[in-house]
């Protein structure tokens, strides 16, 4: 398996609820290396661009509102099989369907406010990481 990268955001619900440290510890324990890390807040334009793929979906307005309401923690992570292994670690989109021990099972509150983002492909991981971090911020 090749070493590759994924991109994550600890979403506003997780940060507001004080779960930043616990989630970063789970990510570390699962063997991901931190390539880039910061606390930031997305503007409406940022969220509309980041989630442009969902702009026709009924939940788009709610998603943009949620993702901009407070700070997030953004990170680029590296590991063998990073994209798929990270999505396994976070669990299903809806925490009610997420496996025991996954980050969403432990920390998400609802389908919309589900604590954490994980890229869905190597290509999107690169696009999303570069959206949040310059080349000089990636090590
Ligand atoms: P993510 O992109 O955040 O890692 O989540 P995902 O792949 O598991 O889910 P995706 O289909 O890409 O949806 C992106 C985010 O939109 C919100 N959502 N709300 N209310 C709803 O029906 C609904 N469906 C999706 C969630 O915050 C989801 O993570
Ligand atoms: Mg997604």
TrEMBL record:
Active-site feature positions: 117 (pros-phosphohistidine intermediate)
InterPro entries registered for this protein in UniProt: NDK-like_dom (IPR034907), NDK-like_dom_sf (IPR036850), Nucleoside_diP_kinase (IPR001564)
Cofactors (names): Mg(2+)
Residue intervals passing through the bilayer: none
Binding site for ATP: 11, 59, 87, 93, 104, 114
Keywords noted in UniProt: ATP-binding, Cytoplasm, Kinase, Magnesium, Metal-binding, Nucleotide metabolism, Nucleotide-binding, Phosphoprotein, Transferase
Reactions this protein catalyses: a 2'-deoxyribonucleoside 5'-diphosphate + ATP = a 2'-deoxyribonucleoside 5'-triphosphate + ADP; a ribonucleoside 5'-diphosphate + ATP = a ribonucleoside 5'-triphosphate + ADP
One protein family per Pfam: NDK
Location in or out of the cell: Cytoplasm
Enzyme class: transferase
Molecular function (Gene Ontology), one example: kinase activity
Main location: cytoplasm
EC number, UniProt record: 2.7.4.6
Nucleoside diphosphate kinase-like domain ranges (all copies): 3-137
The keyword Amino-acid biosynthesis is assigned to this record: no
Keyword RNA-binding in record: no
Function: Major role in the synthesis of nucleoside triphosphates other than ATP. The ATP gamma phosphate is transferred to the NDP beta phosphate via a ping-pong mechanism, using a phosphorylated active-site intermediate.
Family recorded in the similarity comment: Belongs to the NDK family.
UniProt subunit comment: Homotetramer.
HAMAP family: NDP_kinase
Name of the protein in its database record: Nucleoside diphosphate kinase
């Amino acid at each position: 398996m090749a070493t590759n990268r994924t991109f994550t955001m600890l979403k506003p619900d997780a940060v507001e609820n004080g779960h930043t440290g616990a989630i970063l510890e789970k990510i570390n324990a699962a063997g991901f290396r931190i390539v880039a890390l910061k606390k930031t807040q997305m503007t409406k334009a940022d969220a509309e661009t980041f989630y442009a793929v969902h702009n026709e979906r009924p939940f788009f307005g709610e998603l943009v509102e949620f993702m901009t309401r407070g700070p997030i923690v953004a990170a680029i992570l590296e590991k063998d099989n990073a994209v798929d292994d990270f999505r396994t670690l976070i669990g299903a989109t809806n925490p009610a369907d997420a496996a025991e021990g996954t980050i969403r099972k432990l920390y998400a509150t609802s389908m919309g406010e589900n604590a954490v983002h994980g890229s869905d492909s190597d290509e999107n991981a690169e696009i999303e990481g570069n959206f949040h971090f310059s080349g000089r911020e990636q090590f």
